[in-house]
Prior knowledge:
Layout: H1 8-21, H2 26-41, H3 52-61, E1 71-76, E2 79-83, H4 89-107, E3 111-115, H5 124-132, E4 137-140, E5 145-147, E6 157-158, E7 162-166, E8 173-177, H6 184-193, H7 201-205
Helix pairs in contact: 1-2, 4-5
Amino acid sequence: MNDLNISFEELSKTLESVLQRYGFDAQRAEKCALLFAQTDLDGVRSHGVNRFLKLLEFIRKGYVNPTKEPEIESNLGVFERWDGQLGVGNLNADFAMERAIKISEQLGIGCVALKNTNHWMRGGNFGWQAVKAGKIGICFTNTKANMPAWGGSEPKLGNNPLVIGIPRSEGPVVLDMAMSQFAYGKLSVFSMAGKKLPMQLDLIRRGI
């Protein structure tokens, strides 16, 4: 079977149209669709369009409310706390990073905490958001305990993503990583393709 090639514009507009049917207003549908499409454009298949149907499922089940936006809870100079109101995860994260950027422009540094939100999909999007604004961005989020500590056998730690974006004149550095060798999204990509994971056997043999 030949690969199906879809332009970035066609993909984003198609996703945008679907989102509007799921209760998004035009502006939020466009932004959310672009975040999904940009992820695939950058080659990060594990956290792009392949997760779009999961978002729609969560909306149908009431886990995600497409009309809700973050509400401020407290403001202490460089630090703000917001309630995401179970809104769309990637839109909430985009909002939080934009707030951090604006605070940093006024006070030199900005830190935004967000509760009651949902999966932000590709965390690297928000590292790039900071870099494009000429800022160093550090992002992380929590999740349920789903992996053991080194040498353990019971899941006690969350496989939380870590994102660090650093703008440089010779080209930015953007780190987007899981705390394990593979993220769940990467596992699903290999599973759907019927491929085996590229295990780092040399590291395993050395106990690294």
